[in-house]
Amino acid sequence: MRAPAASRSTCRGGSASTAHTVTQQVRLVDDHTIEGSMTADRSGGGWICGNGPVYEVHFSMRFHRTIGAFGTWDKDDVDRQAHERHTASDSAGFFVEFPVAAGERILVKAGVSFESVAGARGNLATSLPGWDFDGLRARARATWSRAIGRVKATGGTDTQREIFYSALYRTMLDPRIRDDAQGPERRRGFARRTVFSGWDVFRAQMPLLTIIDEQVVSDTVNTLLELTSSGKVKGLARWELLGTDTDTMIGDPAINVIAEAYLKGVRGFDPDTAYRLCRDVALGPIERSNRNDYANWKNLGWCVNTSLSETLENSYSDYALARFAQATGRAADARELLRTSRNYRNVFSPEAGWFRGRNADGSWMGDQEGCVESNPDQQGWFVPHDVPGLIELLGGREAFINRLNTIFEQTAPEDMMRWNDKYNHSNEPVHHMAFLFVHAGAPWLTQKWSRYVCRHAYGTGPAGLAGNDDCGQMSAWYVLAAAGFYPVAPASGVYALGSPLFDEVTFTTSRGTRFTIQSRHNSDVNCYVQSATLGEKPLHRAWLRHEEIMAGGRLVLDMGPEPNKEWGSDPRWAPPSGI
Q: How far apart are CA 399 and CA 306, in angstroms?
């Protein structure tokens, strides 16, 4: 999430504190080792949004040469005599000195832990037992090569491959393991993970990981369940950080991720506990729910606080949970949740012909109100679970396609790398929009505009993203779109097909199968799908099921310079309706 100054809040969900607390301690342990800790609140080195946690980070640092001198400082106060310092200052530190010859290098290595100094010491011993710098670099490169090798792209340009593999790397950084390598937490049966940017990553990053790294998804689900079961979090964390829900952003992304995981066959967590905690959020009782504007949602059928965004987000989460309920034999819950998943209709203004925020008395908000990090023209398209219903509200396929197409046509190439009021790829609410055309029988427009976004919203270097990466979401969008498919509604298990940038992309799935997308005659000009085969059988639909990808096989797309408006457009081949 991100926003321009004085325009939209990037800390939705809590108020920032002006308090400032930092405590530090450092100690010379022996003539090769320094250890210490730092405690910080959100204003003193921590997360500034929402309910940022107060946390401790501990370190153990070793030098390969004997330390010649050790000292500490606190602003202008320098102490060369003491072997340790405790301070509440954020302007303090330590230094070491060594007698060296010209050109001589000093090697240093450090372990960190969010549990204890002993944990940091253990992490260091496990991760960096020796001093072979070149060997370590080679091992790190090999480790990342294996990880990145789960997706292999051939063809395209050098720049496209650089963007692709850089993006794939970033999708694997978070949620990161928090547990110590030798700590008692490992006996739990899963690795605790942290940095769950839920509102962002449920859209593409988690769906990508359900294909190539189910373990991360399972770990994340278990972490979310543990936080709630332990009493540390009310409801389910929507933006977890270091064992705390920062309560940043809106919606129920944990429900989205948990339901999608179960529906796509990810296991390793207790489905009954998972369902119960998800149900508490969506259906109450209120004392166990952290759903946005719960009372108005239940009593009115829409949210009043940031009305449009919250109502649409809640509607999708209820759909995801309804599918989870269906899959686990909870028919009554499924019926109720499918009913409330249609609440998106309560914020559609027939007079305006589009979505509007709504007040508690039923009156409509202004045409630019009621949204979080978006505007109604952007947020209103977030009905991923019932695109046929959205098409109906807009008056049919033609009206739907024309309105959606106009947004892309009005977004100039130079606007794709900056915040704008049209197709704002800088932020997540629009990320599924280019793939909605498949649901309306115009897959050639998905092919056109997904390529457009890939070309103009991504680049190389420090300015290579339209917005910050949001813990892997921005990058996951590129990986999937450049490969040629995207999950409009992740919990549906359906992926809309687009236009691959590469001649061939192969995914090695978590289950050991390989799924390849081959694009024949592919080029910048030949960006339109002419025909397709899946497993050597003609494919008339412009979408895939999750099971088809995980089973492995080959999808072959024949590409050409002009749209084939017959392929994938017949209503008989439309993606299944969510409700």
A: 27
Q: Mean pLDDT across the chain, nearest whole number? A: 94
Q: Which amino acid is at 226?
A: E
Nearest to 211, CA basis, from 412, 451, 417, 493:
493
Task: Tell the residue number behind the tokens 């967590």, with chain if given.
Answer: 269
577 DSSP assignment: P
Rounded distance between C-alpha atoms, residue 535 and residue 553, angstroms? 6
Taking the C-alpha atoms of residue 22 and residue 42, their distance in angstroms, rounded to an integer, is 10
DSSP-based three-state secondary structure for 453: helix
Q: What is the pLDDT of residue 577?
A: 82
H helix or E strand, kind and range, residue 341: none
Rg over CA atoms, the chain: 26
How far from 162 is each of 140, 151, 357, 451, CA to CA, in Å?
19, 13, 41, 16
51 pLDDT more than 90: no
The pLDDT tens digits for 442-469 are 999 999 999 999 999 999 999 999 989 9
Q: Which of 302, 422, 283 minimizes the C-alpha distance to 355?
A: 302
Between CA 156 and CA 440 the distance in angstroms is 29
* b/e sequence 15-27, b meaning 16+ C-beta within 10 Å: eeeeeebbbbbbb
- CA 4 remoteness from chain centre: 21
Q: How many Å apart are CA 309 and CA 323, to the nearest integer?
A: 22
Contacts of residue 100, defined as CB under 8 A and 6 or more positions apart, other chains included, come to 65, 106
| 209 and 225 Cβ atoms separated by less than 8 Å | no
Q: Which has the closest alpha carbon to 558: 503, 477, 493?
A: 503
* Among 129, 109, 126, residue whose Cα is nearest residue 118: 126
For the chain, how far is it from start to end, CA to CA, in angstroms? 29
- Amino acid present at 485: F
Q: Is pLDDT above 50 for 516? A: yes
Q: What is the pLDDT of residues 87-103, one digit of tens each?
A: 988 889 999 999 999 99
Are 390 and 400 spatial neighbours (Cβ–Cβ below 8 Å)? Answer: yes
Lookup: tokens for 530: 């002419």
Distance CA 508, CA 516 (A): 9
Side chain identity at 160, as an amino acid letter? Q
**Cβ–Cβ under 8 Å, residues 41 and 4:** no
Mean pLDDT for 3-10 is 35
Q: What is the pLDDT of residue 4?
A: 33
pLDDT at 17: 52
514-520 and 553-560 beta bridge pairing? parallel
- The residues with which 355 forms a beta bridge, in sequence order, are 348
Q: Measured between alpha carbons, how far is 92 from 95 in angstroms, rounded to an integer? A: 10
Tokens of 228: 């709630």
Do you know the residue count of the chain? Answer: 579
